[in-house]
Amino acid sequence: MALVAGGTRGGGRGIAVELGAAGATVYVSGRSSAAGRSELGRAETIEGTAERVTAAGGRGIPVRTDHSRPEEVRALVDRIAAEQDGRLDVLVNSVWGGDPLTDWEHPLWEQDLDRGLRLLRQAVETHVITSRFALPLLVARGSGLVVEVTDGNTARYRGSFFYDLAKSAVIRLAVAQAAELKPYGVAAVAITPGFLRSEAMLEHFGVTEENWRDGASQDPNFAYSETPAYLGRAVAALAADPAVLARTGRALATWDLYKEYGFTDADGSRPDFAAHWAAELEEEYGPLGDPL
Fold this sequence. Notes:
Layout: E1 2-5, H1 10-21, E2 25-30, H2 46-55, E3 59-64, H3 70-83, E4 90-93, H4 113-141, E5 144-149, H5 161-181, E6 186-192, H6 199-205, H7 228-240, E7 251-253, H8 254-261, H9 273-285
Parallel strand pairs: 1-2, 1-4, 2-3, 4-5, 5-6, 6-7
Helix pairs in contact: 1-2, 1-7, 3-4, 4-5, 7-8
């Protein structure tokens, strides 16, 4: 039994579907639904993700939720508790929506402060709110896994002040939750994909999943990208690992976990963006950094 908060698209969708492929019932929450789109205006919906979860072999349940609103999150968790007899095994905090708020061009002192603080509320505060209401279900069972989805698992600066702060803070959320949850048998980790080939990234390069390699003509690094399914399979492997508590508090990455669990991407490949960085990018940009 899983809740994927922010499961509308991208990594959240990939995680929800792969948990479904493992046989899980997955509550998919977010703001974009058939009843109306979020401010991002994208076409993906929680219903679309839930349908993919069910098609993969699980049971997808879409619940429209604004995770910045505590009352809506409380209602979501109350519904899960009522419908699943109090059971929740996996909580995935994947709420993001910060792309249009990220300023990649200016230093902090030249950025719009309201926009930057809004990014932090959207990308960090939503995770805190969701955990606040969902964690009691995991604690009551004395087992389970919390997954904080981030970008990067090292202290390397991510190129934009508020973006870096948000993604680093999410890792710290995993560390803090791990410390408080370990006595109750619940693990908490952060996880990052490599170069994620999300719906938005495919659109950015003007390609589809069928011809995605054409995008490498614009950015050679895109040839080493990975689908959301790769991230999803990493999370599914962690959720199925009876020894996952040994990893609690760590910032993990798909490029390490595939070696340990043996999963592949959707096309059977095993992308390793850290290896690509070391071979092609480290000389220009420096080392990727040591895992946190």
